[in-house]
Specification:
CATH topology of the largest domain: Conserved hypothetical protein from pyrococcus furiosus pfu- 392566-001, ParB domain
Number of strands: 5
CATH superfamily of the largest domain: Conserved hypothetical protein from pyrococcus furiosus pfu- 392566-001, ParB domain
Largest sheet: 5 strands, mixed
CATH class of the largest domain: Alpha Beta
Radius of gyration: 30 Å
Strand content: 5-15%
Structural class: alpha/beta
Mean pLDDT: 80
Number of helices: 15
CATH architecture of the largest domain: Alpha-Beta Complex
Helix content: 40-55%
Strand order of the largest sheet: 1-5-3-4-2
Low-confidence stretches: 6-12, 149-166
Length: about 325
């Protein structure tokens, strides 16, 4: 006799047939497990930093008092260990709190699915550095391209497995985040900066647009610029960055050219005096409107200068 062949017709199983609605609902819920912390690895090339700041201190205290409220999400590795997809900060907090295990949901997903989820979950942070956005957007965009097609923004469909065009991928990524496609492209350009320049962008000493222009310089030119910034203690403006890029394109950007450009005075780096309006208000008559405050202060300073000059002339007589 031939062996019986069982054909799966997609019909409900015998046991499932007699399940109650509540039992079926429970079966679809994610399974939460206690996973040993020493079996969990960080996500490869994770672009987001885990900072030991006040927020981390509060998170550690909360976990100690209430335990883990929101489980982390893990992906099973081929070697039997786990890697974090979402929850690097919570894992670190549990380590600091002295826990040995952490509540986690283990999901089956491809590498690209994991990358997309990792980026999306971390973009919810309140503080994100430009470098973190840069590498996160780059990773997600590359994962989206590898995944193939989905329904386009104009409502049409692509064949399964077809590669997304760069501009279409940018639009799809922009559709899921707060930044525009053009802004996403600018952030991704930051990944071409050498570390010292990228650090200055994170510190707010170089703006995004000049940083994008500088990202087109050759690596050795960027290193020369980094040295010039250290010596001059100033950073290039957007206009100066554009000029450097033009010199680089013509093959004429050397230390002397960088030094000359950097030695120019920039409006954004002239010395400024800051004073709180509330501190100045008590010296200004109430009849002076807010939009005339600056003009009034300048006139008062001019009056005081002339007064000091008259007093000096009288002493010299």
């Amino acid at each position: 006799m031939k062996n019986d062949q069982r054909i799966d017709l997609g019909m409900t199983g015998y046991a499932e047939l007699f399940m109650s609605g509540e039992e079926r609902k429970l079966q679809t819920l994610p399974r939460i497990e206690d996973i040993p912390l020493d079996q969990i690895d960080d996500f490869p090339d994770h672009p987001f930093q885990v900072r030991l700041d006040d927020d981390m201190t509060q998170l550690v205290e909360s976990i100690r008092e209430r335990g883990m409220i929101t489980p982390i999400i893990l992906r099973k590795k081929e070697d039997g260990r786990f890697e974090i997809v979402s929850g690097h900060r919570r894992k670190k907090a549990c380590e600091i709190a002295g826990f040995e295990t952490i509540k986690a949901e283990v999901r089956e997903m491809t590498r690209d699915e994991a990358i997309i989820m990792m980026v999306e979950s971390n973009l919810q942070r309140s503080v994100i550095l430009p470098s973190e956005k840069a590498y996160a957007y780059k990773m997600k965009l590359e994962a989206m391209k590898r995944q193939g097609a989905r329904t386009d923004l104009d409502g049409t469909s692509r064949p399964v497995g077809a590669k997304l065009r760069d501009n279409r991928s940018d639009e799809q990524l922009a559709d899921s985040v707060m930044d525009s496609a053009r802004q996403i492209s600018r952030y991704i350009r930051l990944t071409e900066l050498v570390p010292p320049l990228l650090d200055l962008v994170d510190e707010g000493k170089i703006g995004l647009r000049p940083a994008v222009e500088l990202s087109y310089l050759k690596k050795d030119e960027q290193e020369m610029l980094s040295e010039a910034i250290t010596i001059t203690e100033c950073t290039p403006s957007h206009a100066q960055a554009i000029r450097m890029r033009a010199f680089s394109k013509d093959g004429n950007l050397g230390p002397y050219v960088i030094e000359n450009i950097m030695s120019e005075e920039k409006p954004n780096q002239r010395e400024k005096i800051s004073i709180r309006y509330s501190d100045a208000r008590k010296y200004i008559p109430s009849s002076i409107p807010f939009d005339k405050t600056g003009e009034y202060i300048l006139k008062a300073l001019e009056f005081y200068r002339k007064y000091r000059e008259r007093m000096r002339e009288q002493r010299e007589r």
